[in-house]
Amino acid sequence: MAEKKRAAKAKVAGERPKKEHKQSPVDKHGRGKKYLEAAKLVDRTKLYPIAEAVDLLIQTSPVKFDATAEAHIQTGLDPKQADQNIRGTVAMPAGLGRATKVLVFAEGTEATEAKKAGADYVGSDDLVEKIKGGWLDFAVAIAEPLMMVKIGKIGKILGTKGLMPNPKTGTVTKDVSKAVTEFKKGKVEFRLDKDAIVHVGFGKISLGKDGLMNNFTALFRALSNARPSSAKGTYLQKLVIASTMGPGIKVDITSLQ
Q1: pTM, entire model
Q2: Which CATH number characterizes residue 166's domain?
């Protein structure tokens, strides 16, 4: 009735009635038609062998852009225990399929070498001030050891975003040019969150099955090797992979062992 009244008023006033824009159907969680169609291909009760899971991962990407392949691993660790709060890096054999923006805190010779290695941003106090102002347009921050005193001023800002340089991940180093080269080629960081889950992007869908399989194998191996000696029970409990905005695919962890 309301629509008819509006149309009648518009007709009287000599205006053209506004067309109603049809929206794609969504479910109660706000997920669109493409997602729902992709989700039909996945059996939510099944644990897929990794090779089959990666095939599905590629098939179920619902977006037009080159989506990221993501891994979400539930561990049996206790994040409140310092020795179980794992953090490390892994080099992806097939690369990430995208450019990684790298920032380097360095001066003098190290700054020059970082620029030659391909760092996107290199500086010292100027970068500290820029970050204080809210700028965070980079994915990795690397620092030579002497810079850590200055970086301490923005420690909370970087820490909240998971960007704080750390010796454990090779982002605090005397050889910044080597670190820049490694991260540009596809080295990624993994860390445990407060829910004892590790979330990692391990490449773009465009890498194809072989590239994604090689990258995931390297990631799983690195995570397995990172098991703390104090860990009890099942270390890696659940594993789900998904593309950006795509449905989750449960993986049979035993297929990786």
Answers
A1: 0.78
A2: 3.40.50.790
The tokens of 134 are what? 């809210």
140 within domain boundaries: yes
In contact, 73 and 198? CB cutoff 8 Å:
yes
Instruction: Give the three-class secondary structure for 195.
Output: coil
Cα of 157 vs its chain's centroid, Å: 19
DSSP letters of 126-186?
A: HHHHHHHTT----SEEEE-GGGHHHHGGGHHHHHHTT----GGGT-B-S-HHHHHHHHHHT
**pLDDT one-digit tens code per residue, 35-88:** 888 888 899 999 999 999 999 999 999 889 999 999 999 999 999 999 999 989
75 lies in the same domain as 85? yes
**Which residues constitute the domain of residue 132?**
101-184
Q: Is the pLDDT at 239 greater than 90, yes or no?
A: yes
Count of domains observed in the chain:
2
- Average pLDDT over the chain, rounded to an integer: 89
